[in-house]
Amino acid sequence: MRQTKFSNFISRNLAYIIFIIVVATIPFFVSSRFYMHILIMCGIWGIAAASMNLIMGYTGQVNLAHGAFFGIGAYSTGLLMLKLGINFWLALIMACSITVAIGFFIGLLAFRTKGSYYAIGTMCFNVIVTVIIENWEGLTEGVRGLLGIPRPTPIPFPFGKEINFTTMTANYYLVFSFLILTLLIIRRIVNSMIGRSFLAVRGNEELAESLGINTLFTKLQSFLISVFFAGLSGGLYASYIGFLSPEISDYHVTFEILIYCLIGGLGTMAGPIIGAFSLTVISELLHGMAFPRLVAYGFLLIIIVIFLRGGIMGGVHLLAANLFLKARK
Amino acid sequence: MLYTKNFNGKDDAEMALFIQQVLNGIMLGSIYSLVALGLTLEYGILHIPNFAHGALYMAGAYLTFLLATQMGFNYWLAMMLAMIALAAIGVLVERLVYRPLIKESPLNSFIAAIGLIFIFVDGALHIFGPDFKRFPPVHYEAFQVMGLTITLQRIIIITVTILLIILLQLFIKKTTIGATIEATAQDREGALLMGISVNRVRMIVFALGTGLASIAAALISPIHLVYPGMGGPVILKAFVIIILGGMGSIPGAIIGGFILGLVESLSGGYISTAYNEVFSFGVLVTVLAIRPTGLFGAK
Amino acid sequence: MGGGKNFKKIINFLIILILTSFMGNLSMVLADVINVGYTGPLSGGAAKYGRNNLEGLEMAVEEINAAGGITVGGKKYAFKVIALDDRYKPADTVTNARRLIELHKPPFIFCPHAGGILGMLKFNEQEKFIIHGYTDNPAVLQQGNRLLVKAPMSMGFYNSGVIELGWQKGWRKGALLCGTHESGKLAEQIFEVLWKDKGGQIVANAPADYAKVTDFYPYLTKVLAAKPDCIFLYGPSEPSAMIISQARELGFKGGFVLGSQCKLDEMEKVTPLKLISPSTGVCPVGMMPLPLMQDYSKRHRERFNTIPTSESAFNYEVMYIFAEAMKKAGTVTDVYKIMEAVPQVLPVGKHAIRGIHTMTKEGQFLSGYFAMEVDEGKFGKPVDIDPRPWYQKYGATWTPK
After folding, report:
1. Which of A90, A149, B23, C193 could lock onto A78 through a cystine, CB 3.0 to 4.6 A?
2. What is the CATH number of the domain that holds A260?
């Protein structure tokens, strides 16, 4: 059978095409605003998780400052919109740039260290950022929080109409458009030469260095891209929820995103999304239980981590491999 | 009042204030050192930081509290019993949670530790309730010495810490078990070849580390309060300390602990109490920028 | 490796988990049950605060049901509390609220933190539910929302009472040692502005995170060096009591001005009254010279084995207000009509334990308030302070500049 370029394209990108179709059609089946809200939050955390996956899963650096960049993106967006009256779209781009700029300095400092030192060093940066947000009241309103952040500015359409973002559906499409964009960009990067250098650094940093790869530059690249998308997810959060307080940059947020990545499957494209989605859903379901919710959640984490090496996606791959083997017999 | 009748003018008052802050810092540092010691010992063997250390610290406080109040044990006895119980729990945690994950990426152990934290903290919340518990007043006699105030409990904390540090050093350097711990920490393969049971060493180190955390918690609780979230800020500081001092280094943990205690106390006293944490982390970041493996860490 | 087998085990476990949890959710809205929603911190640092709020609500609902529920339009209704934990995070509050709307359709949702309240204010008029926002943050009243009530009065008002008593004791040089949480920062500002307005001095400021700090000596040492007459405290009761006992250890002989979060009866359990003296603070709810409150106090202790606080008392009373408003409005679904009826049913007879007697146009409830002094190891007589003059002067949305 001759393989046309088209059928080639379809088979290589099947998962993404299906994903886009599902995402696009969900609002036609789901009318409940509760479920839409959950999906939107999954989408926002999905972007955050996917970006963490880039630096951790693909480049092998245990970066624990992610929550800080989420927070910087969120606060930048919120402040630009509230205090300078800038519209959402411009504010978002500026916020991501600010996040990357700050990320550059933190990255340079942090990458002087390695291994566990790097991990805890970045976690400390996270705490520093949270403390600064809490205490620089003149800028951020501190623990009182930033309130009244407007929803994304309506996009004008020809013929006097506009797309506005007061409905759940509109916000859903906004968030998921960004999510799909993020995934496509990250996938492109991962499959490119730059992505190869990431994997090389993950595999064995010294070996990569000896092969002529500038590991500092590579790590920094991965870090900055990852931080950019973290800021993006923060900006989306700020506008959707409309209210910010310093806790959203806390290191506990970093841990949550990390859990999504790991449970979903680190180093896979689908992993972070699956992790964000399933754990949000599981956490919601646990509300109905009589048993202390977080205790159950804790046990769940430990069990999954011990028995499901490689997260859910790891399990899926194993299952697929088993089935494949059985089919061949 | 705060100063004795002997003070002469402003300079003496400033001096007394300074020494008071330094004393505060040493006391804080003692607690931090004990917790960091346990953590650094565990790191030396596990090669990953035990994030659940703070939760175990909290469990030690609650257990001591329970024994001292509900069961009416004497404070010291309660502390000993709680320490033994926590050591056992530490061994269990190592065996059931960390050991299956030895060969995996350190991130897995990290997530497992987070799971443990949820279990312990939320469990404590549901068993004991969310309010702050106060220890029955113990060793609250205050002394006025040369214009300074110090309570008996604070003296006890500093003394016990110094004692434990000396005992630990003797244990590591002078006993066979201590030698095996050191050997395993330095080179696991070599230790295995020498016939050392690495599993036994892990068990002992965890019992030791968790026990130390329990004692630290029991020491500080009469001064502060017992509540489910008390492990969080402490574990964060413990991490700062072992990074500062160098992971796996015992002198690093001790010196790092005291440095942190002093920085907190003095910066809070003289600059600003609100930015307290930033100073501690600022010190850390500065040290790491100069020596990326900490003051005493192996290069 | 057996990864596949383990994987199947996990799936089975998850399926059981999902099924059993749905059992809990099968409480579909029956014709004669009205659901009342609650979303607040039930775990984490603010868990106690969240539980106190919930206790009042639960007790009211239990009592109303035991007395036969309410009758509206010829039909009998019982209430049911659906409580969800939001860990103090506004995003979780919004999720919880949407869940409540989706599954339980409550006409009322109670929430004890400003972040969560503000989050819900964005859609409560759309989704038609009335919020009882338990917070002292006036920002919630500034959103122009028509379906919001707020029982705790302005912190400015509460603190002005205790400051006045302190001033009358002759204290002039004050030092601030308040918590760094949201209300702590607000309290710090209010203390400073009001104290200076009277002509007092602020000689030192050492904010402390009451929950995280292991030892208050460094803060106290700094504050005491400035030789204040009194120290302003604001934070949870037990750490406040610790600060006092440590201050006494350090030789401080002056007084304490205790903000509204410090509950003297809870503090007494940690530090003896002799050490707390001399100080001024808010009269504990259980000691208010209101017979209805005394009675409630007893019932609350028997039911929950905890000290009743403003948090529980106010939510108890507001629940009764809502129930009466439903009866008066003659509807259990039209929330705008119910809201209109609210001011008309005040005070709610023998359930007006805090004595809510008026509602301002923004939805702020005004009630009784007592300040009190603690001297020589004994509680003083509660001093009755009417909120109306303060509210006429400053308004419900006053914040210190």
Report:
1. A149
2. 1.10.3470
Give yes or no for a contact between C354 and C314, defined as CB atoms under 8 angstroms apart.
yes
Radius of gyration of chain C from Cα atoms? 23
Q: Is residue A65 part of a domain?
A: yes
Interface of C with A in 79-118 (CB under 8 A): 84-85, 88-91, 94-96, 98-99, 101-103, 114-115, 118
Q: What is the pLDDT of residue B138?
A: 67
List Cβ neighbours of A29 (8 Å cut-off, separation of 6 or more).
none
Sign of the torsion angle spanned by Cα atoms C15, C19, C24, C30: positive
Do B269 and C224 make contact, defined as CB atoms within 8 angstroms? no
Residue range B39-68: mean pLDDT, rounded: 89
Could you tell me if residue A100 is inside a domain? yes
A328 touches chain C (CB under 8 A): no
- Residue in chain C closest to A310 (alpha carbons) equals C3
Q: How far apart are CA A123 and CA C163, in angstroms?
A: 42
A258 near B CB under 8 A? yes
Q: Which two three-digit tokens encode residue C176?
A: 């601030």
Q: Is A109 on the interface with B (CB under 8 A)?
A: yes
CA nearest C342: which of C353, C334, C358? C358
Provide the domain count of chain A.
Answer: 1
Nearest-Cα residue of chain C relative to residue B126: C43
From first CA to last CA, the distance across chain B in angstroms is 50
Q: What is the pTM of this model?
A: 0.86
Q: At what angle do helices B9-46 and B250-270 cross, to 10 degrees?
A: 150
Q: Does A306 touch chain B (CB under 8 A)?
A: yes
CB contact B114 to A (< 8 Å) = yes
Q: Indicate the domain borders of chain B.
A: 25-230
Question: Which of B126, B236, B289 has the CB atom closest to A109's CB atom?
Answer: B289
- A133 has a chain B CB within 8 A of its CB: no
**Identity of the residue in A34, A41, A148 whose CB atom sits nearest the CB atom of C91:** A41
- C235 and chain A in contact, CB less than 8 A: no
Q: What is the mean pLDDT of chain C?
A: 88
Q: What DSSP character marks residue C343?
A: G
- Is the pLDDT assigned to residue A3 strictly greater than 80? no
Nearest to B226 by CA among C217, A298, C272, C238: C238
The residue range of the domain holding A251 is: 30-289
Cβ contacts of A148 on chain C, cutoff 8 Å: 143
Q: Does B298 reach chain A within 8 Å, measured CB to CB?
A: no
- Indicate the burial class of C33 (C-beta count within 10 angstroms; 0-12, 13-18, 19 or more): middle
Instruction: For chain A, list the contacting chains (3+ Cβ pairs, <8 Å).
Output: B, C
* Cβ-Cβ contacts under 8 Å, B239 against chain A: 120, 123-124
Each residue's pLDDT tens digit, A37-47: 999 999 999 99
Q: Cβ(B112)–Cβ(A302) under 8 Å? A: yes
A27 touches chain C (CB under 8 A): no
**pLDDT at position B145 over 80:** no
Residue A116, in any domain of the structure: yes
Q: Does residue C36 register a pLDDT over 50?
A: yes
**Helices and strands, number each (H, E), in chain C:** 15, 16
CA end-to-end distance (rounded Å), chain A: 25
pLDDT at C29 over 50: no
Please compute the mean of the pLDDT values over residues C70-95 and round it to a whole number: 91
Integer Cα distance of C390 and B242 in angstroms:
54
Please state, in angstroms and as integers, the Cα–Cα distance from residue A82 to each residue in A91, A139, A143, A243, B201, following that order: 10, 12, 17, 11, 58
Q: Which residues contact C163 (CB under 8 A, 6 or more apart)?
A: C191, C194, C195, C198, C257, C280
Residue with tokens 């060969």: B103
Question: Which of C 256-285 lie inside 8 A of B, CB atoms?
Answer: 269-270
Looking at the domain assignment, is residue A318 inside a domain?
A: no
